[in-house]
Amino acid sequence: MRRREFLGKAGGLAALASAGALAGCGSPEANGESTGVRDTGLRFHWRMVTAWPHGSPGLGAGAEYLARAINELSGGRISVRVFGADDLVPALEVFDAVARGSAEIGHGAAHYWEDVGPAAQLFTSVPFGMNAQETHAWLYQGGGLALWRDLYRHFDVIPFPCGNTGAQMGGWFKQEIHELSDLEGLSIRMSGLGGEVMRRAGARVVSMAGDDIPEAMRGGRLDAAEWVGPYGDRDLGLHRWGWHYYYPGWQQPSSLVEALINREAYEALPSGLQQAVTHACRVASDHMLMEFTARNQQALDELVSVYDVPVQRFPDPVLASLRRLTDEVLEEMADEDSTAGRVIRSYQDFQSQLARWRELTNLDPSAG
């Protein structure tokens, strides 16, 4: 595929990036440099390890899209070979592989990296938090990205926002949930802060990679499971056991995906290629969010009409209790870890600043 063809398929976003649309976000124009990638003859061959099943819709495909974007925007000077989860390293070891230089780049979600510290999971999602648009505004206009990069700095890893699944579903449950006590004792697969909230509610939270979920559901090792949303859940086959599909996705109203780049590998690139990588991440980020936004409803329609999946809303008292537990978890995190406290305060301050604007602009679809 030629570079011009790729830019067209990217919806013109890469062209906007090269034209300086990213000014103020680390674009070359902001530093008085040219966006043109001058060919000095150097070629770079990167390995990308990912936390996703190879080629999975949205996530695995998003990693492949990023690899193509980097190649095209670098004029072919950076080639990226993509490895799915377990091809080179397990899904939950992607961060470590990039940190030690076994791979130059990774594609995953920050809530998987427990060893980085409690603040990491805040850069995937916050229960009852901001939506995708607001979260990206916090990163680029509210100081969130600087906090994120400061957190990873000690590991010689540079994070780049590189996708978002948008709002997720609340998960698949073998039994109906009528009140908070129904969660007690359930074995549930749920990552990040949502998982900690579920622990507070009495559930037994299990960590596992996405492609291990179906067998765990089938084999009786799980009573409930959360993955992404209709688009990704259908592909994994999570609908095959007739479980109840709950909404809203209180645990992840937005879900950031990140590109992790080894600092030494990034700094070995000429400045023009560094900017090509930066722009590629922005293009891939927009592409993923658009894909999930378009495909989730299509997949949900199929789950309901073809497979008779029962879609149910969590009762309001259950949601209210989960929100209360979320507040407790965040407050304790802020008290116990100073870095997490800084991130939480920044996030919540920005969310509060947007509250009035959200109220004024969120039109009820049924109005009029």
The portion of residues forming beta strands comes to 5-15%
Structural class: alpha/beta
Low-pLDDT runs? 1-35
User: For the report, how would you describe the main beta sheet?
Assistant: 6 strands, mixed
| Adjacency order of strands in the biggest sheet | 7-6-8-5-9-11
On the 0 to 100 scale, the average pLDDT is 90
What's the tally of helices? 13
CATH fold-level name of the domain at 3-164 and 253-294 = D-Maltodextrin-Binding Protein, domain 2
> Could you give me the name of the CATH homologous superfamily of the domain at 3-164 and 253-294?
Bacterial extracellular solute-binding protein, family 7
What is the CATH class designation of the domain at 3-164 and 253-294? Alpha Beta
Query: What would the principal axes of the Cα set say about the shape?
Result: globular
Distance between the first and last residues' Cα? 46 Å
Report helical residue fraction: 40-55%
Can you tell me the CATH architecture of the domain at 3-164 and 253-294?
3-Layer(aba) Sandwich
- Rg from alpha-carbon coordinates: 20 Å
Secondary-structure element order, as H and E? HHEHEHEHHEEEHEHEHEEHHEHH
Number of strands: 11
